[in-house]
């Protein structure tokens, strides 16, 4: 298969988008590297705290007028953005593949998911309606008005660089707030493209800002008294120790979506063919760098013959996964985002071997890459058997293409070990039994539950949930909950003399 | 080389449509009498590409098995589109019938395999296969003249 054309053809230094202007940063500049080719494709500034201040000022200044812009008119800006996103769908998708490494099908999937959030936010005239009670007492009426708060910070992760900021930003601006998006400095290009489309859609200056950078700008947006809330997706340690603490200290609202260790429970009555295919996507899709990736395959039952034939099939299909540059349409798994992440995954593989798990497929060895690319960030899929939940590979988030197989005697045990894990982001069961599915769904402590679904990614009109140490906050991103998060309830009680 | 990903499947569908469109455009040039109908076939092919791509781009998400959608050997659907000079018109029509049968087979197989890509993609494939069935009837009627 021929390689699809790369959209980023020359190395340029990215700018910040503040107050409707493209502004050069005074901060140092670091390389953005394509993990497949290991070539620099852009230079991104690590902006200063003062530059974040400027963005907050711009957003604060834009807020009063934007709030007064009617919801119907605000929705029209979003309709224009949606149209522009459709027109630029392929370019936006290829940028993600070029800078992140995911396959083109995965990038297009990410683009579609992002656009769906814009579509849902277009319904803001009805989504943000309040409610009214007549005669709460004689001659007195009461109603609630969802009102915007002002400026919000949106801190994006590296694994879904385009989509995840769109879990928040469209709802924030639709409800009348102004935003500052801080993309991951590893993968900023799709957010730059999005900001260009925001500009083309004609959003007023200051409503949608983008500031590139790392800790300094995150620290500033967290401390800034004019920032009313934060949405964050990243590690549990950062969510807990930084986001929750800082937002608590400064009185900000927050949504912090965090780490995961997802359990896929496989019942002996499952549809084997479709379960195995779903496992390929769930464990190895996005090269395992997904907070909804399955990590532990929990195989239920003591039937050794079933286990052996099932695992043989899993190993065979996994061995055939084509690895390479995601702009080659035949590729089914791209590289890991960077070498440091690859090294971290390898350290987990080594710990698995050390702790006594049986390595059935070793992703470190004999990686067959389609095309002539450096091995730097590539890693094959790994499968461990005889894993126990107390091993590091069975309990901690690896964030890579590693499947840890755990055998249990029955469904209760499967649920127990999943519930004992500190995380509860996305867990699933594969079965043809309605009873097992119902029991699982009822008892599992997890924010997103799949029944014969490998990637439990909620649609834009449902909240992206999470439980235990996978989520901190009250309301979630996406849909109606995002609308609630980005508004405050103003209750009015009225009497006329 | 076996095609596995959704993207490969769509690209292959596009190739079949474009190659057969080119075949009909050539045919239209050779046979003034039936030119209009052959050009309409070529135009329909372009619409088919739009229909299939729209279905794919509309439903592709990370919740579905996009990278493991197909198991298609393109060699099973090779089209013979070259028409040597001096080929008898009836033989060209027979060649067109074979092209249509091959493409129908592709869409039918692809629809069956792509059930996991939500309903839209297999439905688009099935609709295109059905349209081509109508085309087969027309080509058959030409052969009977």
CATH superfamily (homologous) name of the largest domain in chain A: Aldehyde Dehydrogenase, Chain A, domain 1
Could you please say which CATH topology of chain B applies here?
Ferritin
Rg calc of chain B: 16 Å
Strand line-up across the major sheet of chain A: 16-18-19-14-13-21-22
Which CATH architecture of chain B would you pick?
Up-down Bundle
- Biggest sheet record of chain B: none
CATH class of the largest domain in chain A: Alpha Beta
Oligomer: heterodimer
Termini gap of chain A? 78 Å
**Helical residue percent band of chain B:** 55-70%
Word description of this protein:
The complex is a heterodimer of chains A (497) and B (145). Chain A is an alpha/beta fold and 497 residues long. Chain A is built from 16 helices and 25 strands. In chain A, 38% of the residues lie in helices and 23% in strands. Chain A has a seven-stranded mixed beta sheet, sandwiched between helices. Chain B has one domain (6-144): Up-down Bundle (Ferritin), CATH 1.20.1260.10. Chain B has four helices and no strands. At the A-B interface, helix 4 and helix 10 of A face helix 1 and helix 2 of B.
Summarize the structure.
The complex is a heterodimer of chains A (about 500) and B (about 140). Chain A is an alpha/beta fold.
Set out the fold topology.
The complex is a heterodimer of chains A (497) and B (145).
Chain A: E1 12-13, E2 16-18, E3 21-23, E4 29-33, E5 40-45, H1 49-68, H2 71-87, H3 89-100, H4 104-121, H5 124-127, E6 131-137, E7 140-148, E8 151-155, H6 169-174, E9 178-182, H7 189-201, E10 208-210, H8 215-223, E11 227-233, H9 236-250, E12 253-257, E13 262-266, H10 272-284, E14 294-300, H11 304-319, E15 323-324, H12 339-354, E16 358-361, E17 369-370, E18 382-385, H13 392-395, E19 402-408, H14 411-420, E20 423-424, E21 426-430, H15 434-443, E22 448-451, E23 467-468, E24 471-473, H16 479-485, E25 487-495
Parallel strand pairs in A: 1-5, 8-9, 8-11, 9-10, 11-12, 13-14, 13-21, 14-19, 15-17, 18-19, 21-22
Antiparallel strand pairs in A: 2-3, 4-5, 6-7, 7-25, 12-24, 16-18, 20-23
Helix pairs in contact in A: 1-8, 2-4, 2-7, 3-4, 3-7, 10-11
Chain B: H1 6-30, H2 35-59, H3 89-113, H4 120-144
Helix pairs in contact in B: 1-2, 1-3, 2-4, 3-4
